[in-house]
Amino acid sequence: MSEKLAICGGERTIAEGVIKPWPPIDDIDREMVVASLDAHKHVFGPNDKAVQDEFAAWNGHKFVQFTNSGTSALHMCVAACNCGIGDEVIVPAWSWPSSVTCVLHNDAIPVFVDIDFDTINIDVDKIEAAVTERTKAIIVVHLHGLCVAMDKVMEVAKRHNLKVIEDCCQAHGATYKGRRAGTWGDCAGFSCNQNKLLCAGESGFFCTDDEELFNKGKAVMAFGDSPGPFDDPEYHAYAMGWKYNSNDLSAAFARAQLSKLDGYLERIQENAAVFDEGLHGVPHLILPVAPEGHWHNWYNYTIRFDLESMGRDAHDVAFRNKLLEAFAAEGVPSGAWQRFILPAMTVFRAKNAYGKGYPWAAPEAAPVDYSLEQYPVAQLHCDTHTCIVSALRPPNGPDVARLMAQGIRKVMENVEQLDA
Ligand SMILES: Cc1ncc(COP(=O)(O)O)c(C=O)c1O
User: Fold this and answer.
1) Ligand 1 mean position to 165 CA, how many Å?
2) How does pLDDT run across 164-220, given as a tens digit for each residue?
3) Domain locations in the chain as residue ranges
């Protein structure tokens, strides 16, 4: 049935204010944050310690450090795995920038591998071909809450004696073959920023089961002070270091949210199922998958447009953006998650992070090739995707999921109106 699109002056599908913001805040959050404030121990306080123990128990780690971001946790992972000057680290060509700039932070060189179109994760069958004598580690990103097929990654890592770092910033609670994200490799970084399923405003976790890696990672956390601020700090820079610990207020917020996280994950499953059902059969869409053995947390529900089926060029980004404007006019809050694949970002094109071409220019480094033809799948995904992030989460329920699917269906069944 032809309906006038809201962008062309028709009625919008979802009224203003229907979709509620993330995360839900209740008295548990208020009480814990105010109690932390009143305790006057704002750094290395009781919540700081407790959130580490609680997250370790929730996800299954021996050692957890609460950090000021997922980015810093990932840098701690890279440092823990001893990736430094001249070393190469295999990374996906599509992710958040700091999944890869964390490698540069420790002077090592990223080597990009294209993604698999269905899972949007690193193509595990292409990892081995990227291994060289300089490769030290593989960073896998469990993107949008879908785990990488970790058994395959671990096999390659074992064959070549490589460390495996898991970027779990979007993967709280996600599992592969029944095992949690973050518990497969040598160490993992989680994020607790505003958008994440465990929100503390900003913050993150550095996690491992290996005490030696834990101490190595922690050494970069407090300006190179060692053995660390918990054990009689000397305030002496033994080595290069940063300032990566978080604070007690954020820890209190994270604890309150962690106590509700299992409930959130259940609600998101229900909402995503309703949304998915509502989108089945909508023309020109490629819906996301959760292959057998994967438990997707639906952090980000990503749709691709089949632009060719609409008579467009497969990479017609301008038309993709027009579709997103039409969704927004219907009240559907979707967006392009990233506008560039990672190797197309300026720091990698210029091969210059610290000036004078470093770390690529280090005499110990071998030349690496970032020519963009190597990443056709990541580029196609980049140009054709859109995503729904927090609207599928509580306090929003299945009614919102149903409305969003209706709004998208309306646009996709009337795309010809966008040419008018
Ligand atoms: C996949 C991924 N990795 C790393 C990060 C960095 O986390 P943070 O913002 O806490 O530094 C993010 C944040 O959005 C992310 O989505």
Assistant:
1) 14
2) 999 999 999 999 999 999 999 999 999 999 999 999 999 999 999 999 999 999 999
3) 27-257
